[in-house]
Specification:
By secondary structure, the protein is of the alpha+beta class. The chain starts with 21 loop residues before the first strand and ends with a helix.
Length: 877
Amino acid sequence: MDIQRNTEMADAAITPHEPPMIRREDYQPFAWLVPVIALDFDLGLEATRIVSRLTVARNGKAAPSSTIRLNGDGLTLLSVKVDGEMRNDWSLDGDDLIVPLSDEAHEIEIATEIDPAANTRLEGLYASNGMLCTQCEAEGFRRITFFPDRPDVLSTYRVRMSGSKAQFPILLCNGNRVAEGEGADGTHWAEWHDPWPKPSYLFALVAGDLVANSSIFTTMSGREVELNVWVRAEDLPRTGHAMESLKRSMQWDEEVFGREYDLDLYNIVAVSDFNMGAMENKGLNVFNTKYVLADPDTATDDDFDAVEGVIAHEYFHNWSGNRVTCRDWFQLSLKEGFTVLRDQLFSQDMRGQAVKRIEDVRILRAAQFPEDSGPLAHPIRPDSYREISNFYTATVYNKGAEVIRMMRSLCGPDRFRAGTDLYFDRHDGEAATCEDFVRAIEDGAGLDLKQFRLWYSQAGTPRLSVAMAHEGGTVTLTLKQKVPPTPGQPDKQPMVIPLRIALLDRATGSHRGEELVVLDRAEQSFAFGGYATPPVLSVNRGFTAPVVIERQLPREDLVLLAAHDDDPFARYEAMQELMVGHLVAASKGSLSEGERAEGEAAIATAMGAVLADPALEDAMRGELMLLPTQSYLFEQLDKADPAAIHREREGLKALLGRELATEMHRLYDRAEKVPYDGEGARGARKLKTQVLAYAAASDPAKAAELAAYQYDRADNMTDRQGALMVLCGLEHPAREEKLADFYRRYQGNALVIDKWFMLQALSLHPRVLDHVKALKDHPDFTIRNPNRVRSLYMGFAGNPPAFHTPSGEGYRMVADLILALDPINPQTAARFVPALGRWRRLEDGRAALMRAELERIAAAEHLSRDTYEQVSRSLDG
């Protein structure tokens, strides 16, 4: 599926509601095995009855128990039988069912009833637009029936589903369909069997009025697998890209990791109400519609990439997550970090390594680096949590992937493959740990990772100071590392940090080849001979390690690297470093007039070289043209003034737009002639959007004219959305005209209307705050659909000039949303809290206003565990 430390709230109002702390060190195997479970569903939107039959046996590896604890949450219990006899000696401990058991093995039968239509949390079995579907990760199965709802209890499932054929013509579940038939009074039924033992979080059920895009995939051993992408009838034409992405994923996993699919059937279902991006349930993936539906008129190039990446991610989970699952939720990065790396490598092979790697690093820095330096910091394998849903974080997913990528860099692709083969062979059908994975890489690759394991236990982003000296033809590179203190971890040990480097000739930009240096001490020096003149250092090429590089490099060296470095990421990094250094100093007010002019001239020179380089593909050129985001600049300052950052960034954008206008518009004119499916068309579209953004800052009237022209001529969503994005930030009649046209054109298409909301929430328009307030009262806005809420409020919270308005109104709007959403969908509500958790990094006035909103949330009664944990840690961390 696309936290740590025990805290005590100063606010006594919520102390009585403090949820318990779950600790990794307290793990114990469950006392009972449940090798088989049979489920019988009588389906209805407002009343679904479930009869579950559990075959249980004592677990010889666990402490014996005379009772079995079966987790529940909001269930109506109808009856309990043990070995066929009705029992009344059971009890409830909170929501959990406790049943006395005396012998070595038993069959427990439990009847429950639930109301899917009332399940606004979208966990367990719930209704979505007349359809029934499930989301069981992490602890949703207990909202369906009583069960030991933990990932180390593995069972084979037999499921019978019955319901109205008119209302639920399609009945889907995990595994293979083994029987189906007609019932009485317009009902029908289907039986499913999943032969592979799985934890309850991987259970899935879907019932509704759906149609399928169907195909066949032949595996490397010659088996035929039926593939289906299930959607509502009107969405069927937009499923072709998802199907092709699935086939490419299956073939790639066979070729690169040797993993073959293991069932006769693979189903994907698109659901419009979904908290996550998608879910890898065995043989029945449930997806947010956002990551299934795509065609050129309604989806951007980025949307197409996201569909392909998420389809791949969930498919790859079939082995890294399903066949080998997690022993407990502290091991979440075992499956998620590894699978994110796998989907990243897949996307690199599908679309090209250079741009994809830059995109992945940009996401890491935007989401995970702030997490690692704030109150919510935690290791990729946490030690404790109150609510597991809060640990589906950028640290577990994205940093987890970078940690495993470092292992791959240390041993090379072939030895890494030997290690992963050993991991799958050893632990197939088991619930494993992160330690099991690391040990398999060690044994398979012949690598000692004893010290490397610190990446699993230490939070925080290492900071590396880099210095280089040249004497007598020898270059000495000195690296020093420091891992900053994080909540609960004041003192850190040195990490193992692999870095790819190259030493570039100052005159030609060429180099002798790359080297991999491995820093494993607090300070370490490396010597390189044969350099008559001082070279320029290109470091952390390809972003080998998720670290912050701190170095004092002359501007002329950064300009050289930005213009000539042959490593795409290092070239991008030099351009970013050049701009970040200037913008941070400018926003702090520490530049003299002369220093400002020198910095601007250096950036313009480097950007001019990027625009003029005939060897660059436009996709890479578009990446190099990107200014550092305001959020990233924010993180470079101990006490940030968002208004100053915004002013300086927009000023630099305007200057570059003016000075390089001729070159930019020449490139725009060339790109504008590239047809949608032409060679380099994706890069051409990216380039056009970048040129429009620079024009909007430097010449708003011309930008509005050009954006309106592009909007009217657009034959695809990428161009249309890019033009509308620019218009949204301008005071021009075309803004309202094109927004109205966009809404009329796509009214009724929920995913595209999400874009309409988000474009306005993210805009640089001076009255964006008023626009967002109006949009929350729009007839198409609903707080009950996670996609719609995220489109408006995540967009707004990610818009620094609007969110950080000096009055604090932006903070208040997000806090109001959290309080309104928490009783309805706590998992989604909690994901908005981190936006308010960065108050310590703000100048004092805004910091006080932001903290006050967190305290207001904390004082509310009956906060969910999800929101409570995020707020308490944000205040105390």
